[in-house]
Specification:
Blueprint: E1 8-9, E2 18-19, H1 26-42, H2 47-62, E3 66-73, E4 76-83, E5 90-92, H3 96-104, E6 108-110, E7 128-135, E8 141-149, H4 157-176
Antiparallel strand pairs: 1-2, 3-4, 3-8, 4-5, 6-7, 7-8
Helix pairs in contact: 1-2, 1-4
Bound molecules: methionine sulfoxide.
Methionine sulfoxide binds at residues 66, 87-88, 91, 96-99, 119-120, 122, 126, 129, 146, 148.
């Protein structure tokens, strides 16, 4: 597999600049961006701002089709900050890949979305998907990080580990400054 990583993500108002070396190694890219995401969100206390920048950092680093968050609110999942085409606003607990990750508390890797019973197709271009649950400090699932690819079988354990490491950074921040 070949990947093309964005070299620099600059913003004049951010104290941090994300840098990812040009490499075909996805695991290395996760290792490079994780501490930079930690530095980025540590200097910001607004959860929406942090979710938005995390989604943007993942999207721009890997070029995935859709990267974003669904957050548990009022007994269902509601879409949060994301990068990519418009998406379903609400997903019931237990439904689709996101609802399954939420209800089981386990990362879901779906190599072919057409073969996942109950998959919710927000966009026909989405071919494979990974969803990582996000836990609150009370050990309840707070929401999920959803990443879609327009390529079949684009995610494996490397992504599960890499995205989990990013979600852990977010969980730590949420536990320090609960919303
Ligand atoms: N496919 C997801 C729905 C969300 S979109 O992919 C952005 C699911 O089955 O839960």
């Amino acid at each position: 597999m070949e990947f093309s990583y964005t070299k620099r993500l600059d913003c004049p108002v951010m104290a941090e600049t994300l840098f990812v070396s040009q490499t075909a190694d996805r695991a290395a890219a996760y290792s490079e961006i994780a501490p930079q995401i930690a530095a980025l969100i540590n200097s910001e206390r607004d959860v929406t701002a942090n979710l938005a920048n995390i989604a943007a950092a993942i999207k721009q680093t890997f070029g995935f089709f859709w990267v974003g968050f669904y957050i548990a609110k009022g007994g269902e999942l509601v879409v949060g900050p994301f990068q990519g085409p418009i998406a379903c606003s609400r997903i019931a607990f237990g439904k689709g890949v996101c609802g399954t990750a939420f209800s089981t508390g386990e990362t879901q890797i779906v190599p072919d979305v057409d073969k996942f019973p109950g998959h919710i197709a927000c966009a026909s271009e989405s071919r494979s998907e990974i969803v990582v649950p996000i836990f609150s400090s009370r050990d309840e699932v707070w929401g999920v990080l959803d990443v879609d690819s327009d390529r079949l079988d684009d995610f494996d354990e490397t992504d599960a580990v890499g995205l989990r490491s990013i979600v852990r950074i977010l969980e730590k921040k949420l536990s320090e400054e609960p919303v």
